[in-house]
Amino acid sequence: MRSLSTAALLVLVFGMAMCGGGSPSEPAPSGPVTITILGERGAQSFSPNPATAAGRSVVFRNSDTVVHRVRLNDLSIDTGDIAPGATSNPVNMPPAGTNYHCSLHPTMVGAVGGGNTGPPPCQGIYC
After folding, report:
1. What is the DSSP secondary-structure string of 56-108?
2. Cβ-based burial of 23 (10 A; exposed 0-12, middle 13-18, buried ≥19)
3. Is residue 12 situated within a structural domain?
4. For the domain that residue 68 is a member of, what is the CATH number?
5. pLDDT tens digit string along 42-84?
6. How many CA atoms lie within 13 A of 59 on its CB side?
7. Model-wide pTM > 0.85
8. Cα dihedral sign for 81, 95, 35, 51?
9. How many domains does the chain have?
């Protein structure tokens, strides 16, 4: 009986290890990261800023009273117009992070970085 209990315990432990029963201190990301559009406030136009979301799916929620349109500085992603109170469709951020702006209000700037690395340096006309 004792060897059966030991064998069952080993199977359980091995099974958990194979199924990803890893460290509970690092939860798997779930759903897109939400970045809130606050208004025309320069580098404080978006929250959080910078956002820790490199390589993740991101949605922009417009909590301002006017329309905004978020674009990556390299123009590779464009959310389209986001009405007041609306949320953009999810966009996939580059794995190395990026900088972005509101194309309707170019002084509104933001950045996305990774977990241990910040966003890349902002360069160009939107910085």
Report:
1. SEEEEEE-SSS-EEEEETTSS-EEEEE-TT-BPPPEEPPTT-EEEEESSSTT-
2. exposed
3. no
4. 2.60.40.420
5. 999 999 999 999 999 999 999 999 999 999 999 999 999 999 9
6. 12
7. no
8. negative
9. 1
43 DSSP assignment: G
Count Cβ atoms below 10 Å from residue 72 Cβ, excluding itself: 18
Positive or negative CA dihedral for 91, 31, 53, 82?
positive
Assigned domain for 20 exists: no
Is residue 18 domain-resident? no
Cis amide prior to 90 (ω within 30 degrees): no
Q: Which domain holds residue 80?
A: 31-127
Report how far residue 111's alpha carbon sits from residue 123's, in angstroms, rounded to the nearest whole number. 12
Q: Is residue 55 part of a domain?
A: yes
